From TrEMBL:
It is an enzyme of class 6 (ligase). Pathway: Purine metabolism; IMP biosynthesis via de novo pathway; 5-amino-1-(5-phospho-D-ribosyl)imidazole-4-carboxamide from 5-amino-1-(5-phospho-D-ribosyl)imidazole-4-carboxylate: step 1/2. PANTHER family: MULTIFUNCTIONAL PROTEIN ADE2, SI:DKEY-6E2.2. The keyword ATP-binding applies. This is phosphoribosylaminoimidazolesuccinocarboxamide synthase. InterPro entries: SAICAR_synt/ADE2_N, SAICAR_synthetase. Pfam families: SAICAR_synt (PF01259).
Length: 225
């Protein structure tokens, strides 16, 4: 087994059978101990959170597979906090797809002059390119085409899939008694096919309860109840 990538919250290994293995770590993105799904630094180390993130991811990947949505998920070993996945090639050097039901985080930092914090949004999808040095810049459909990162058709298909996936996750969050605000996904190529990759855990989304943002551990507990 060869380690091929050391990430902020997961390490990636190549398995003998050609698949990849994601090792979930007990780290969350954020700054100075404060969780932030949009952050590019590890902000908190929480014992056991890797296994919990994997549990939540497995729950959602199984729901998506049942709904006929293609994902990289193959199997999981909860005790060891590992997930076997289909290997995927990223768009460019990596792309993040965000779906927003409510205006918070970087959306408010950018557009706060035009919208109130927490205002409803119509499943608004935007993409950022993974580039820590440049603060993960936002990119338009035309930008992605000009830079040769994806075609317009691929962009439209990812926006559509993102809205479908988010609807499934949001419904589950609401069922657990919280209000869904936003979420971040990654997609990649498995052969010619574009599939959902990475993880779907509390650290990738924001949810509120009683007007306050839920800490990832608390959201996880609600989702696994
Ligand atoms: N199926 C997959 N194939 C290839 N790479 C993947 C797959 N699923 C996730 N990844 C990548 O593995 C890495 C996971 O580690 P993570 O800690 O989240 O990294 P990062 O610090 O880049 O966010 C990410 O770079 C993600 O793009
Ligand atoms: Mg990540």
């Amino acid at each position: 087994m060869k380690k091929i990538y050391t990430g902020k919250t997961k390490d990636v290994y190549e398995l003998e059978n050609g698949n990849y293995m994601l090792q979930f770590k007990d780290d969350m993105t954020g700054e100075n101990g404060v969780f932030d799904p949009g952050a590019n630094t590890v902000g908190a180390h929480i014992e056991g959170i890797g296994r919990e993130n994997l549990r939540v991811s497995v729950k959602f990947f199984e729901m998506l597979n049942a709904a006929g949505i293609k994902t990289h998920y193959v199997s999981a070993d909860i005790d060891n906090a590992t997930m076997e996945v289909l290997p995927a090639k990223p768009f460019g050097k990596g792309l993040e797809v965000i779906c927003r039901y409510r205006a918070v985080g970087s959306f408010i930092r950018r557009y706060g002059a035009y919208i109130e914090d927490g205002a409803k949004l119509p499943a608004y999808v935007e993409m950022t390119i993974k580039d820590d040095d440049r603060g993960d810049p936002l990119i338009t459909k035309e930008g992605l085409e000009v830079l040769g990162i994806m075609t317009g058709e691929q962009f439209d298909a990812i926006v559509k899939a993102t809205k479908e996936i988010t609807a499934i996750v949001a419904a589950e969050v609401e069922k657990a008694g919280a209000e869904f605000y936003d979420i971040k996904f990654e997609f990649g190529f498995n052969g010619q096919e574009v599939i959902l990759i990475d993880e779907i855990a509390s650290g990738n989304m924001r949810a509120y309860k009683d007007g306050k943002t839920l800490e990832p551990m608390d959201l996880t507990a609600l989702l696994l109840k």
